[in-house]
Write a structure and sequence with these properties.
This protein has 407 residues and is an all-alpha fold. 83% of the residues lie in helices and 0% in strands. The longest helix is centred in the C-terminal third of the chain and has 39 residues.
């Protein structure tokens, strides 16, 4: 087995940062092609949106179980194998004969992406520690935001110049490029392989999930990302059907949405030392105020510029929330890096898929006011769990002070 060589740290880290946004790239690049895919397969818009839901659900479920596997069998071989399968599935999608085949390939992509992302996050824990590790983990959500920014923008042009299949050819080329980097410069960095024993694995899961602050964090992350995904799933039909723009304009709108997520990530990174609960309360207040403003203005001004100003600001708040709690969850249990990494993404993605599906099913989002209602709903959900979270942190602080006094 090829071992990681620290002399390749720089390129191996770059390769990691290229793979971390893969989940966002796979979900967002073909969004501008939704209407074209709807016509190509002669199905409803809801059936096309399910291609995204199937990926999110399979990705989320796989994330829950990938952690122990990468802790027991190592990161490197699983990542290499998953990248190869992902590459093949992307090519297969370009030749998909039916929507059912698309669903099956998206499920495969969800599972392989889970192995890749969890493995690479754990890889960073293997080679870094302390403040440097926290800095890289905080940077991850900013790097991840590159996909929502660039993917729909690129996908819009690919759709305009070629058709929907070009998106999946690009994914295949991307996977091939990073696969070469991994084979050449990366390797197995895990020093101690944990025995693959059910009892020890269940103990790790119990340790992580029994922490209320961690479990609440999964729900908060799910809400924050669901805000972004509801817009992503609705944008092609709002922009192209309601406002009569092209897929390129859908890409520009998604680009602006991603900019908001990235700005929020930078704000989260800049305030990394501030108290988490205070940051969440400020974000919730902002989401609710902006959501109400977006809803009211929608009755008076039906213009894409107004819509996107609110989306930019709301996704900035969402990106801020995601960065704050993402960093907290990933660094909460360093002794269980694979399990906590898998549960952080898997649990949050499951919440994301369920919440976004319920929101899309509850509201037929075709205009600004309906989208605003979904944002208000997510703001209320985050606010509802922030109150008990504040109580938990306050109790932990009192216990720490009490222990210190006894010492």
């Amino acid at each position: 087995m090829k071992r990681y060589d620290s002399k390749n740290e720089k390129i191996a880290t770059i390769s990691t940062f290229l793979l971390i946004p893969l989940s966002g790239l796979v979900t967002d690049i073909y969004i501008p092609s939704f209407p074209d895919m709807q016509k190509a397969f002669a199905v409803s818009s809801h059936e096309i949106q399910l291609t995204l839901s199937y990926f999110l659900i399979s990705y989320g479920i796989a994330m829950l179980f990938v952690g122990p596997l990468v802790d027991s069998f190592g990161r490197y071989r699983l990542i290499i194998g998953s990248l190869f399968i992902f590459l093949l599935s992307s090519v297969a999608l370009a030749y998909a004969p039916s929507i059912t085949f698309v669903y099956s390939m998206r499920i495969i992509q969800g599972i392989t992406t889970a192995f890749i992302v969890v493995g690479k996050r754990a890889f960073l824990v293997d080679i870094f520690s302390g403040a440097k590790l926290r800095n890289y983990m905080s940077t991850l959500s900013i790097v991840w935001a590159i996909a929502p920014i660039s993917a729909p923008f690129i996908g819009g042009y690919l759709q305009q110049i070629w058709d929907w299949t070009a998106n999946f050819y690009l994914l295949a080329l991307y996977a091939l490029f990073v696969l070469v980097l991994e084979l050449r410069y990366s390797g197995e960095a895990l020093k101690t392989f944990k025995p693959f024993r059910a009892k020890e694995i269940l103990t790790s899961y119990r340790t992580v999930l029994s922490a209320p602050d961690f479990f609440i964090g999964l729900f908060v992350l799910g809400c924050a990302y669901a805000m972004i995904m509801v817009f992503a799933m609705s944008a092609p039909f709002i922009v192209e059907n309601h406002f009569n723009f092209s897929p390129v304009e859908t890409g520009y709108c998604a680009l602006l949405s991603g900019v908001g997520v990235m700005i929020g990530g930078f704000i989260g990174k800049a305030t990394i030392e501030k108290k988490l609960v205070i940051k969440l309360f400020c974000a919730v207040a902002g989401i609710l105020l902006l959501g109400v403003g977006m809803y009211v203005s929608g009755f008076y001004i039906d213009h894409i510029a107004v819509l996107m100003i609110f989306v930019l600001l709301l996704h900035t708040a969402s990106g801020f929330v995601y960065n704050a709690y993402f960093t907290y969850c990933l660094t909460r249990f360093p002794a269980h890096a694979g399990v906590s990494s898998g549960l952080t993404s898997g649990g949050s993605y499951l919440f994301t898929s369920v919440l976004s599906f319920l929101m899309i099913s509850t509201f037929t989002i075709t205009q600004q006011t309906q989208l605003a209602q979904s944002y208000i709903g997510f703001g209320l959900l985050i606010g509802a769990v922030t109150l008990p979270l504040a109580f938990l942190f306050r109790r932990k602080e009192r216990q720490l002070v009490s222990t210190t006094d006894e010492i």
